[in-house]
What does this fold into?
Amino acid sequence: MASQNISIAIHGGAGTILRSTMTPELQLQYEAGLQTALDTGYKILEAGGSSLDAVEAAVVSLEDCILFNAGRGAVFNHIGGHEMDASIMWGKTLEAGGVCGVNHIKNPVKLARTVMQYSGHVLLCGTGAEEFARQHNLDFENDAYFYSEQRYRQWQDALKEDRVLLDHTEKKFGTVGAVALDREGNLAAGTSTGGMTNKKFGRVGDSPIPGAGTYANNNTCAISCTGVGELFIRSVVAYDISCLIDYKGLSLKEACNLVVYDKLVKIGGEGGLIALDKSGNIEMPFNSEGMYRGCRSNSGRNEVLIYPK
Ligand code: ASP
It folds into this structure.
Protein backbone atom coordinates (compact mmCIF):
# COMPACT_ATOMS: atom_id res chain seq x y z
CA MET A 1 0.00 0.00 0.00
CA ALA A 2 1.41 3.38 -0.97
CA SER A 3 2.01 5.71 1.94
CA GLN A 4 1.77 9.47 1.61
CA ASN A 5 4.55 10.26 4.00
CA ILE A 6 8.16 10.39 2.96
CA SER A 7 10.86 11.38 5.44
CA ILE A 8 14.59 11.22 5.86
CA ALA A 9 16.88 12.08 8.77
CA ILE A 10 20.66 12.08 8.84
CA HIS A 11 23.44 12.57 11.37
CA GLY A 12 27.11 13.41 11.17
CA GLY A 13 28.02 12.36 14.70
CA ALA A 14 27.55 13.50 18.28
CA GLY A 15 30.01 14.76 20.88
CA THR A 16 31.63 17.81 22.39
CA ILE A 17 30.62 20.38 19.80
CA LEU A 18 30.84 23.83 21.33
CA ARG A 19 29.75 27.15 19.87
CA SER A 20 32.84 28.69 21.44
CA THR A 21 35.18 26.60 19.30
CA MET A 22 33.22 26.75 16.04
CA THR A 23 34.05 29.38 13.41
CA PRO A 24 31.25 30.72 11.18
CA GLU A 25 33.09 29.39 8.07
CA LEU A 26 33.40 25.90 9.50
CA GLN A 27 29.79 25.88 10.61
CA LEU A 28 28.71 26.77 7.07
CA GLN A 29 30.80 23.91 5.69
CA TYR A 30 29.21 21.40 8.04
CA GLU A 31 25.73 22.68 7.34
CA ALA A 32 26.35 22.49 3.60
CA GLY A 33 27.67 18.91 3.89
CA LEU A 34 24.59 17.87 5.86
CA GLN A 35 22.14 19.66 3.54
CA THR A 36 23.69 18.05 0.45
CA ALA A 37 23.34 14.57 1.97
CA LEU A 38 19.77 15.30 3.07
CA ASP A 39 18.73 16.57 -0.36
CA THR A 40 20.43 13.65 -2.12
CA GLY A 41 18.39 11.16 -0.11
CA TYR A 42 15.17 13.17 -0.21
CA LYS A 43 15.20 13.49 -4.01
CA ILE A 44 15.27 9.71 -4.30
CA LEU A 45 12.24 9.40 -2.01
CA GLU A 46 10.43 12.18 -3.86
CA ALA A 47 10.93 10.38 -7.16
CA GLY A 48 9.34 7.25 -5.68
CA GLY A 49 12.64 5.49 -4.92
CA SER A 50 13.15 3.13 -2.01
CA SER A 51 14.22 4.12 1.48
CA LEU A 52 17.15 1.74 1.09
CA ASP A 53 18.43 3.68 -1.93
CA ALA A 54 17.83 6.99 -0.15
CA VAL A 55 19.74 5.88 2.96
CA GLU A 56 22.64 4.53 0.92
CA ALA A 57 22.90 7.70 -1.19
CA ALA A 58 22.76 10.02 1.85
CA VAL A 59 25.44 8.02 3.69
CA VAL A 60 27.65 7.91 0.57
CA SER A 61 27.41 11.69 0.35
CA LEU A 62 28.59 12.01 3.97
CA GLU A 63 31.31 9.37 3.47
CA ASP A 64 32.67 11.41 0.55
CA CYS A 65 32.82 14.59 2.65
CA ILE A 66 36.16 14.84 4.48
CA LEU A 67 34.57 16.68 7.41
CA PHE A 68 32.87 13.56 8.75
CA ASN A 69 34.41 10.49 10.38
CA ALA A 70 33.39 7.92 7.77
CA GLY A 71 34.82 6.94 4.40
CA ARG A 72 37.20 9.69 3.31
CA GLY A 73 37.33 11.44 6.70
CA ALA A 74 37.79 8.26 8.79
CA VAL A 75 39.89 8.75 11.94
CA PHE A 76 43.26 7.08 12.61
CA ASN A 77 43.44 3.97 14.80
CA HIS A 78 46.23 3.17 17.29
CA ILE A 79 48.70 2.06 14.62
CA GLY A 80 47.99 4.92 12.21
CA GLY A 81 45.61 3.05 9.92
CA HIS A 82 41.92 3.34 9.12
CA GLU A 83 39.52 0.57 10.08
CA MET A 84 36.00 1.43 9.01
CA ASP A 85 32.69 -0.09 10.09
CA ALA A 86 29.32 0.25 8.34
CA SER A 87 25.91 -1.35 8.10
CA ILE A 88 22.56 -1.08 6.41
CA MET A 89 19.17 -2.61 7.24
CA TRP A 90 15.91 -2.96 5.32
CA GLY A 91 12.81 -2.74 7.49
CA LYS A 92 10.56 -4.56 5.04
CA THR A 93 12.35 -7.92 5.31
CA LEU A 94 14.69 -7.38 8.30
CA GLU A 95 17.61 -8.10 5.96
CA ALA A 96 20.85 -6.55 7.18
CA GLY A 97 24.46 -6.29 6.06
CA GLY A 98 27.55 -4.97 7.77
CA VAL A 99 31.30 -4.70 7.45
CA CYS A 100 33.88 -4.29 10.22
CA GLY A 101 37.47 -3.09 10.19
CA VAL A 102 37.74 -2.52 6.44
CA ASN A 103 40.53 -0.48 4.93
CA HIS A 104 40.81 1.35 1.59
CA ILE A 105 37.11 0.90 0.73
CA LYS A 106 35.82 4.21 -0.68
CA ASN A 107 32.22 3.73 0.49
CA PRO A 108 31.84 1.14 3.26
CA VAL A 109 28.02 1.54 3.24
CA LYS A 110 27.93 0.29 -0.36
CA LEU A 111 29.92 -2.74 0.73
CA ALA A 112 27.49 -3.30 3.63
CA ARG A 113 24.59 -3.30 1.16
CA THR A 114 26.45 -5.70 -1.13
CA VAL A 115 27.02 -8.01 1.85
CA MET A 116 23.30 -7.84 2.63
CA GLN A 117 22.23 -8.62 -0.92
CA TYR A 118 24.86 -11.02 -2.24
CA SER A 119 26.90 -12.70 0.50
CA GLY A 120 24.34 -14.89 2.25
CA HIS A 121 25.80 -13.51 5.50
CA VAL A 122 25.16 -10.48 7.70
CA LEU A 123 28.64 -9.38 8.82
CA LEU A 124 31.99 -9.62 7.04
CA CYS A 125 35.23 -8.31 8.51
CA GLY A 126 38.73 -7.23 7.53
CA THR A 127 40.52 -8.83 4.60
CA GLY A 128 37.61 -11.16 3.84
CA ALA A 129 35.28 -8.20 3.44
CA GLU A 130 37.85 -6.44 1.24
CA GLU A 131 38.19 -9.52 -0.98
CA PHE A 132 34.40 -9.61 -1.26
CA ALA A 133 34.48 -5.92 -2.30
CA ARG A 134 37.02 -6.75 -5.03
CA GLN A 135 34.83 -9.55 -6.33
CA HIS A 136 31.93 -7.10 -6.59
CA ASN A 137 34.01 -4.35 -8.23
CA LEU A 138 33.56 -1.78 -5.47
CA ASP A 139 35.87 1.27 -5.49
CA PHE A 140 39.11 1.24 -3.50
CA GLU A 141 41.20 4.30 -2.58
CA ASN A 142 44.84 4.62 -1.44
CA ASP A 143 46.09 5.95 1.92
CA ALA A 144 46.41 9.52 0.58
CA TYR A 145 42.65 9.69 -0.04
CA PHE A 146 41.97 9.02 3.65
CA TYR A 147 44.65 11.40 4.98
CA SER A 148 43.84 14.72 6.54
CA GLU A 149 46.13 16.93 8.60
CA GLN A 150 43.45 17.44 11.24
CA ARG A 151 42.84 13.70 11.74
CA TYR A 152 46.58 13.05 11.87
CA ARG A 153 47.07 15.65 14.61
CA GLN A 154 44.05 14.32 16.48
CA TRP A 155 45.63 10.82 16.45
CA GLN A 156 49.06 12.12 17.52
CA ASP A 157 47.48 13.96 20.48
CA ALA A 158 45.49 10.89 21.47
CA LEU A 159 48.62 8.71 21.24
CA LYS A 160 50.58 11.08 23.50
CA GLU A 161 47.84 11.01 26.11
CA ASP A 162 47.12 7.30 25.57
CA ARG A 163 43.41 8.05 25.12
CA VAL A 164 40.70 6.64 22.87
CA LEU A 165 38.56 9.53 21.65
CA LEU A 166 35.06 9.85 20.35
CA ASP A 167 35.59 11.80 17.15
CA HIS A 168 33.70 14.84 18.37
CA THR A 169 35.65 14.97 21.59
CA GLU A 170 37.63 18.20 21.55
CA LYS A 171 35.90 19.75 18.57
CA LYS A 172 36.12 16.78 16.24
CA PHE A 173 33.39 15.37 14.07
CA GLY A 174 31.96 11.92 13.77
CA THR A 175 30.16 8.92 12.48
CA VAL A 176 27.42 9.33 9.88
CA GLY A 177 24.02 7.75 9.42
CA ALA A 178 20.64 8.01 7.75
CA VAL A 179 17.10 6.69 8.24
CA ALA A 180 14.30 6.98 5.69
CA LEU A 181 10.65 6.16 5.01
CA ASP A 182 9.54 5.74 1.38
CA ARG A 183 6.16 6.02 -0.35
CA GLU A 184 5.60 2.28 0.03
CA GLY A 185 5.87 2.60 3.80
CA ASN A 186 9.26 0.87 3.96
CA LEU A 187 11.82 1.95 6.55
CA ALA A 188 15.60 1.65 6.18
CA ALA A 189 18.64 2.63 8.25
CA GLY A 190 22.37 2.90 7.58
CA THR A 191 25.45 3.92 9.58
CA SER A 192 29.13 4.34 8.65
CA THR A 193 32.17 5.25 10.74
CA GLY A 194 35.92 5.33 11.13
CA GLY A 195 35.27 4.47 14.80
CA MET A 196 37.15 6.19 17.61
CA THR A 197 40.54 7.91 17.30
CA ASN A 198 43.41 5.77 18.61
CA LYS A 199 41.13 2.75 19.00
CA LYS A 200 43.00 -0.52 19.41
CA PHE A 201 43.51 -2.44 16.17
CA GLY A 202 40.64 -4.84 15.62
CA ARG A 203 38.20 -2.83 17.76
CA VAL A 204 34.63 -2.88 16.40
CA GLY A 205 32.00 -0.37 17.52
CA ASP A 206 28.21 -0.36 17.44
CA SER A 207 27.79 1.05 13.92
CA PRO A 208 28.04 -2.23 11.93
CA ILE A 209 26.01 -4.29 14.40
CA PRO A 210 22.29 -4.66 13.65
CA GLY A 211 20.35 -3.90 16.81
CA ALA A 212 23.17 -1.92 18.43
CA GLY A 213 24.03 1.05 16.17
CA THR A 214 21.59 0.41 13.34
CA TYR A 215 18.12 -1.11 13.09
CA ALA A 216 15.07 -0.99 10.82
CA ASN A 217 11.73 -2.75 11.12
CA ASN A 218 8.64 -1.63 9.18
CA ASN A 219 6.47 -2.46 12.21
CA THR A 220 8.30 -0.10 14.53
CA CYS A 221 11.11 2.25 13.52
CA ALA A 222 14.44 2.91 11.82
CA ILE A 223 17.42 3.99 13.95
CA SER A 224 21.03 5.07 13.38
CA CYS A 225 23.22 5.80 16.41
CA THR A 226 26.36 7.78 17.16
CA GLY A 227 28.33 7.82 20.39
CA VAL A 228 30.67 5.70 22.47
CA GLY A 229 30.15 2.38 20.71
CA GLU A 230 30.94 0.09 23.62
CA LEU A 231 28.07 1.53 25.67
CA PHE A 232 25.69 1.43 22.70
CA ILE A 233 26.50 -2.25 22.11
CA ARG A 234 25.98 -3.12 25.77
CA SER A 235 22.64 -1.30 25.74
CA VAL A 236 21.56 -2.76 22.36
CA VAL A 237 20.29 0.77 21.79
CA ALA A 238 18.61 0.60 18.39
CA TYR A 239 16.76 -2.64 19.08
CA ASP A 240 15.82 -1.48 22.57
CA ILE A 241 13.93 1.46 21.06
CA SER A 242 12.16 -0.86 18.62
CA CYS A 243 11.23 -3.20 21.51
CA LEU A 244 9.87 -0.38 23.65
CA ILE A 245 7.55 0.55 20.78
CA ASP A 246 6.69 -3.05 19.93
CA TYR A 247 6.22 -4.62 23.35
CA LYS A 248 5.44 -1.67 25.57
CA GLY A 249 3.45 0.46 23.14
CA LEU A 250 5.58 3.56 23.67
CA SER A 251 5.60 6.30 21.04
CA LEU A 252 8.82 6.90 19.10
CA LYS A 253 9.49 10.00 21.19
CA GLU A 254 8.88 8.24 24.51
CA ALA A 255 11.09 5.29 23.54
CA CYS A 256 13.93 7.54 22.32
CA ASN A 257 13.80 9.75 25.39
CA LEU A 258 13.88 6.80 27.77
CA VAL A 259 16.91 5.25 26.07
CA VAL A 260 18.96 8.38 25.33
CA TYR A 261 18.24 10.54 28.39
CA ASP A 262 17.82 7.85 31.03
CA LYS A 263 19.15 4.37 30.25
CA LEU A 264 22.29 5.51 28.38
CA VAL A 265 23.04 8.35 30.79
CA LYS A 266 22.96 5.91 33.74
CA ILE A 267 25.85 3.91 32.26
CA GLY A 268 27.78 6.90 30.87
CA GLY A 269 26.77 6.31 27.26
CA GLU A 270 27.45 9.66 25.60
CA GLY A 271 25.89 10.16 22.18
CA GLY A 272 22.64 10.30 20.29
CA LEU A 273 20.62 8.89 17.44
CA ILE A 274 18.22 9.63 14.64
CA ALA A 275 14.90 7.81 14.53
CA LEU A 276 11.92 7.54 12.24
CA ASP A 277 8.71 5.58 12.68
CA LYS A 278 6.31 4.11 10.16
CA SER A 279 4.09 7.23 10.30
CA GLY A 280 6.99 9.48 9.41
CA ASN A 281 7.58 10.91 12.89
CA ILE A 282 11.18 12.02 13.36
CA GLU A 283 13.24 12.14 16.58
CA MET A 284 16.89 13.25 16.86
CA PRO A 285 17.79 13.09 20.60
CA PHE A 286 21.33 13.34 22.01
CA ASN A 287 22.81 13.60 25.50
CA SER A 288 26.12 15.14 24.37
CA GLU A 289 26.78 18.87 23.81
CA GLY A 290 25.84 18.66 20.16
CA MET A 291 25.00 16.39 17.26
CA TYR A 292 25.28 17.17 13.56
CA ARG A 293 21.87 16.30 12.23
CA GLY A 294 19.13 17.14 9.77
CA CYS A 295 15.77 15.99 8.51
CA ARG A 296 13.42 16.58 5.61
CA SER A 297 9.87 15.38 5.01
CA ASN A 298 6.91 16.06 2.74
CA SER A 299 5.07 17.43 5.75
CA GLY A 300 7.27 20.52 5.46
CA ARG A 301 10.25 19.86 7.72
CA ASN A 302 13.63 20.74 6.28
CA GLU A 303 16.25 21.52 8.89
CA VAL A 304 19.93 21.14 9.61
CA LEU A 305 21.06 21.55 13.23
CA ILE A 306 24.20 21.21 15.32
CA TYR A 307 23.44 22.39 18.85
CA PRO A 308 20.47 21.77 21.16
CA LYS A 309 17.36 23.58 19.88
N1 ASP B 1 29.70 4.92 17.51
C1 ASP B 1 30.99 5.04 16.87
C2 ASP B 1 31.89 3.94 17.37
O1 ASP B 1 31.90 3.69 18.55
C3 ASP B 1 31.65 6.36 17.09
C4 ASP B 1 30.82 7.60 16.78
O2 ASP B 1 29.60 7.54 16.79
O3 ASP B 1 31.41 8.69 16.51
O4 ASP B 1 32.62 3.38 16.58
Q: What stands out?
A: The chain is about 35% helix and 25% strand. The chain has a mean pLDDT of 91. Residues 127 and 209 are 18 Å apart (CA to CA). Residues 7-305 form a domain with the Glutamine Phosphoribosylpyrophosphate, subunit 1, domain 1 fold (CATH 3.60.20.30).
